[in-house]
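Explain this protein:
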Amino acid sequence: MSEYDECTDSLVDRTVLTELQAELGGDHAIISAFVRNYVALLPWRVSRLHRALEHLDMEDAMDAVLSLKTSSHMVGAICMNRLATELEISIRLLPNADHLDELSAQVSEIDRFVGGTISELETPLL
């Protein structure tokens, strides 16, 4: 599954975390802390997107979506990364901030996958 496929299979690519752990000398504690931080901040990042759209704040919307996209990529949350990438493109294509509210459906789509992403990241590897 590529990061551009629909979010129908796994929401997280575990190999991303495995590779990051190898790059960090195999330290599982660092990866665990990284995942915990991502999980703790994910709902806040998505609510920040909602607020930016509600307030028609283009700068905050872009900052929030880039934060979501980058952190999702680093943790292997492929669905979140894809949806954030699509939202970033949509924001960039808007003529001005007055049209941000038109993207609320895309942020709602992101909302749909927050719980599943957290669940997959909190599930230990066997």
Residues 14-122 form a domain with the Four Helix Bundle (Hemerythrin (Met), subunit A) fold (CATH 1.20.120.160). The chain has a mean pLDDT of 91.
